[in-house]
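Q&A FORM
Asked by: J.P.
Topic: structure of 4-vinyl reductase 4VR domain-containing protein

PROVIDED:
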Amino acid sequence: MDPMAGKADPGAPASVFRLPLSWFDPGRDLVSVRVRADSAGKIGMYWYYLLQNGVAIFGTMMNVAPGGALAFAILDATGMGREELMRIMRSAPVGDVEVEVIDAGVKGFASTGGHLLEAGSGRSIVMSASGLAGLFRGMRELMGDDAGAAFLYYAGFVTGREWGKFLVDHVGDPHAAARVFVEVLKSQGLATSAEILEGEDRYRIEARDLIECEVLSDYASRKGGRMRTSHWFRGIVAGVISAVRGGEWDVEEVECVNDGSDKCAFEIRRKQGTADAPAR
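REPLIED BY: S.T.
REPLY: Here is the structure written out as tokens.
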């Protein structure tokens, strides 16, 4: 079953995974639902029934536990009307399914309510590109390009250092921890693809659709283009590698999508005379 069937965006990349936490689409009639059942199969049957009856599902998420399953979705009732949508939802021939409609009362907006989100074995949050653009661009506009870039680098560095300590504690081997870091940054949406190449006291990371440089594309254009824009992620890389390998590391963005490349690439080299021991 394709959960995006009905009114899927034909221009959306195949790698896009919509989290139905909240959604803005002015002019559309969006509805959020919370569904509980004693099995994931019943919830799948419920979604399938809605799709078969012309209901568009913007995105779904589900947790499964021994006692049953809990799922959320954002539905589109545009052109159908709320009453017809409710009729279809009530008529679903799936037994023992509890459905709750969550109505924020704002046209063109839907939210699935309050959650504690976990990712990477701990509590997490989701931040939109507009919020991140405020951080990445706003610090430059507030402090100037050089000071803003320095702030972002060190904010990334301390973030990456804690991330790296977590990876070392849970993975153990520093080289495996570096590889896990790249896999996590992909799974958590920082980039759609990334590769890490490891050498003697050096690494190279190549990433596509890196969130920092993507949201700074307009800023780079206003500045005349042809600039390398990653400082926050560059700091994260320095912090992670410093934590998992020990010592101090220089990180340089050598390719950037805002400088004409098709990817962002980073060269990471150990500073001379620094120890090779994971940070604690």
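FOLLOW-UP: The helical segments are 40-52, 82-90, 129-143, 145-171, 174-187, 211-215, 217-222, 232-245.
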